[in-house]
């Protein structure tokens, strides 16, 4: 597996050699759709995770920011990996290995108890800080509209309807909290029945309910008991209907367009379904 280091740049390999001299690659956990290399390595009897970003990567910076500012409620409980070393310019970070299996695809994926734990963990993240941003909604609308002018396979009449829908929205002030950005079983580990969290490449200040988006489109839609368990752990539901609708539409657009860009046809199909379901709730 040492050949997996060949995916790293020279600068990344040099830094890794300084930080973990003689490290041996045990497994390659890279996703494959994006240019981020994720390696499980051992060094001096200890196990680590190495993440290295490609030229267009923005996730490593967000991960390092999250480790610096927001992850302590989880790392203090050993529910997220602890940062060992990182370099923003090199787009490289090393964390201590956190034992566990991905919840996604495991026998635990349908377990309400794990969703309750996930809700509890998310509440810890969101409770740390809240700031008011008068311009957040406008920026998010512009980002969604920008997706619509890039290459995608959203039907032209649907694009026109989405553009008109977004243009009709108010842009009220928004309360922003630290968010994970991709909160779903793909980024949860389970070990001895305990859930922990990985992958902070989309972490940012957003509205709290944006972390409900992936779950609402997938897991909650499939089994409402999982939503009930999640909210039992999280606390009061933050999804104010009008703001939640705007978020669902923007999330649907981004899902369909991003998945098309990276060639993930299944996720793209989910994005198109999300668009149809979000627009079905719009009064004409």
UniProtKB/TrEMBL annotation:
SUPFAM superfamilies linked: Protein kinase-like (PK-like)
Pfam families per record: APH
Residues annotated as domain Aminoglycoside phosphotransferase: 91-244
Gene3D superfamilies xrefs: 3.90.1200.10
Superkingdom of the source species: Bacteria
Residue stretches spanning the membrane: none
Protein's name according to its UniProt entry: Aminoglycoside phosphotransferase domain-containing protein
Organism: Micromonospora andamanensis
